[in-house]
Amino acid sequence: MLTLFHHPLYASCRFVRLAFGEYGEEIALIEERPWAKRKEFLALNPAGTIPVLLAESDHVIVGATVIGEYLDETRGAFQRDRRLMAENSIARAEIRRLVDWYLVKMDSDVTRHLVRERVLKPLMGGEAGSAPDSAAIRAARGNVRQHLKYTNWLAATRDWLAGPRLSYADTAAAAALSILDYMGEIDWREFEAAREWYSRMKSRPSFRSLLADRVRGLSPASHYADLDF
User: φ and ψ at 163, to 5 degrees?
Assistant: First the structure.
């Protein structure tokens, strides 16, 4: 069985877990705290970042998008009806653009700041574990609405976020938004199309392990595991 070094509140890690789930493959999970800089983990990835996949023959594959491309080449290409990457080059470009939007831009605007300030700082200890930065929290919360508006537009104008089929764009968006949903940072009432799309994603078998996630120090929002929220 392949092994993924991950953290449950990193969107990049959830993206990989969803992708494996969509391909119907189980993986072993090892929760990693990258700020701890474990020597054993740094031996696998000197950059100290997650996710890291320990693949066949113990080959180390680092980074969410790199792992995604690896999965497409080793799984997706042989499961055409379930493939998460398009075969058309223009469609692939749109999928990659949206993966970058949710795993890089949204992470930079919103997700990493709320996770760090609300959840991770108390776990870090030392200087890194200082009091939460209220200004960073306010700024991140101020950006949530714009990302929800954009997701709502995508969901309202397309069958799935990148086009007619479920793709990596959907798993990336669901990975990021599920963290905010866990933390109770989304008011879905204003974003009907996005809520309907997210409900479809939550109902997929690949999502079950994410809905079972629990993080020390922060219980999920009451509706987090509710498929009809």
Answer: 155, -150
Cα separations in angstroms, 178 against 46, 56, 224: 29, 29, 8
pLDDT digits (tens, 9 = 90+) for 196-228: 999 999 999 999 999 999 998 899 999 999 988
Q: What are phi and psi of 54, to 5 degrees?
A: -95, 100
Q: Whole-angstrom Cα distance, residue 206 to residue 188? A: 22
Q: Where are the domains of the chain?
A: 3-82, 89-211
Homologous superfamily (CATH) of 3-82 is Glutaredoxin (3.40.30.10)
Q: Strands 28-31 and 52-54: what pairing?
A: unpaired
pLDDT digits (tens, 9 = 90+) for 158-175: 999 999 999 999 999 999
Cα separations in angstroms, 119 against 5, 123, 133, 217: 19, 7, 12, 7
Distance CA 178, CA 199 (A): 11
SS (H, E, C) 108-130: HHHHHHHHHHHHHHHHHCCHHHC
Collapse the DSSP code of 5 into the 3-class scheme (helix H, G, I; strand E, B; otherwise coil) and give the result: strand
Compute the distance between CA of residue 86 and CA of residue 76 in angstroms, rounded to an integer: 10
Which strand ranges, in their side-by-side order, compose the sheet holding 52-54? 28-31, 3-6, 52-54, 60-62
**What number of other Cβ atoms are within 10 A of residue 104's Cβ?**
15
CATH number of 89-211: 1.20.1050.10
